[in-house]
Amino acid sequence: MRVYQGRVKVENVREFLSKLPDGCVLVNADYVVDLDSVRFAAEKALKMWEAGKRVAKTLSMEILLHVAATRQINQALELGLREGENRVVVVDVSGCRASLEGLGFREEDVLELDEEKVRRVCEFYDIGDEELEIAGVEKLGLLVRERMALFAISK
């Protein structure tokens, strides 16, 4: 499994995703604090998938549900692709890099942590002000991974 980041322009999300194999997941970087969090969620998803303890019908959706730390597909899709220019983190368990590059993917650093992103991540993962204040912004990735771990054991 590889996890990397970059940009890709998407005209039609459904058509774009149909050209990728299962196990190639693109996560909206606006909701990603660090690559370790995405890697952590993907490893949990793979372990559950291989053990037959799946929530989703496809490995890609299983990974996205773990990244989003929810069973709700509609909520998890908030972390997915949009039409237009996308900053993404890619979880690649199917060797899809060449396919992605053929669709215009460019690898580059896209993860930045600013106040707006902290607010968005805290809201999505239900991390309260007091919890963030106690842990500190520098530990936000750990708080996100805690939500992911709790999701994995609650299945």
Automatic annotation (TrEMBL):
Recorded superkingdom: Archaea
In Swiss-Prot or TrEMBL terms, this protein is called Kinase binding protein CGI-121
Q: Which family does it belong to?
A: Belongs to the CGI121/TPRKB family.
Q: Which Pfam families match?
A: CGI-121
Family annotation (Gene3D superfamilies): CGI121/TPRKB (3.30.2380.10)
